[in-house]
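Why does residue order matter? Because the sequence determines the fold. Keep that principle in mind as you read this record.
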Amino acid sequence: MTEGGRATLGAPSCPDRLVVASYNIHGCVGVDGRLDPERTAETIRSIDAEVIGLQEVGGHAAGGRLLDQLEYLAGYLQLTPVAGPTLLRDTGAYGNALLTRFPVIDCRRIDLTVGRGEPRGAIDVDLDVRGKRLRVIATHFGLGWRERRKQRSLVGKIIEEDGGPLVVLGDLNQWWPPGYCRRSSWPGFAAVPCPRTYPSRFPLLSLDRILVRPAAALGAIAAVRTPLVARASDHLPVRAVLNIRCARHGQPG
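Structure:
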């Protein structure tokens, strides 16, 4: 949420509210070219989300040893990590991740690789959110439009099998104009505003998305833009406030 160009982020004061976010951390490398996992961790802290999907999470050499970025971020922030690597590099695993304040009930990993393109995937988890199950998918789609179309279709088939509450977090790499992305990608999801998140210093494109089912559960959505956030990655995070009571409507026990 922004006010006068500054983020107004606060912990949810109502138990029916849930704050979620999606953030491409660019391997903890900022727009200044500096590798700084602590800056990335402080940026994530400032977003103040209870569930956050991350993209481009990897490892790097630091002080003669390898540092697992997800392990570092989870420990720094005291959040539960869920790894969804898509590549194995010399410095370790690289790909998607999820950080959450809630217990993880179950976790599935989806292969979204298309042909000989870069390996892509999604993390599909069930969370215990204050005693109720919530399904969350965190993903990073490819660069080519044909590739993305197949990935949207694959995810669509998976989520059609379960009509319950669902949140999709990810860098969907949708390069269409912002007005186009107001269309709903899958049945049952809200056609929501898509804040511009890329590039972080002068955002023009709405690459990063949060999609919610049922549509009524979405309360507010915005890009987070502060001086710290604008430096920490080439993407801005996108953050949404959900109404859990609405999300639970119609959900079995």
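The radius of gyration is 17 Å.
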